[in-house]
């Protein structure tokens, strides 16, 4: 019988503390195995939403002096030629291009703008964060049908000190703010090829990989 789910009110992830990060996942429920999908099915289900620290290429047709590459500031704004402090987070590249066109139309006739995201971070609610004993602990943008295997490939797998089968996933219910913990078996997935350990990942998930006690 599966143990009851542990639930918590939403605190900051860092409040879990180092002791929690090293805790065993014994007794936690496991997620069902993910279905494998083709690469075409793994494409984003909807247009990408710009977030802080994304890098944007703003191209203004026939106006190279107005074209620029810019990183979204932590406050969610950018500054481009002729436009100061433009709020961009939460917008798609197409919507942002349209807004820039409207603002530039004050200065030039019928501007045509294209915005390309060249460095992806995205809003926190659309990221998957991996902390602890991953080769490259980091936050990666969520995409449709993302799995644990995909995430681990992105972060370079486990370190030699990792307790992969002691890892945990923390998932927040966006409606209630309630956190639920699940056990992960990353070592079984990566080293033993146990496909039942490959689970579906959701936007906002946090994966904690503790250090082995041995």
UniProtKB/TrEMBL annotation:
Signal peptide as annotated in the record: 1-26
Keywords: Signal
Metal-binding listed as a keyword: no
Protein name in UniProt: Polysaccharide export protein
Species assigned in the record: Pacificimonas pallii
Pfam families reported for this sequence: Poly_export (PF02563), SLBB (PF10531)
Segments forming domain Polysaccharide export protein N-terminal: 43-118
Domain Soluble ligand binding, chain residue ranges per copy: 128-176
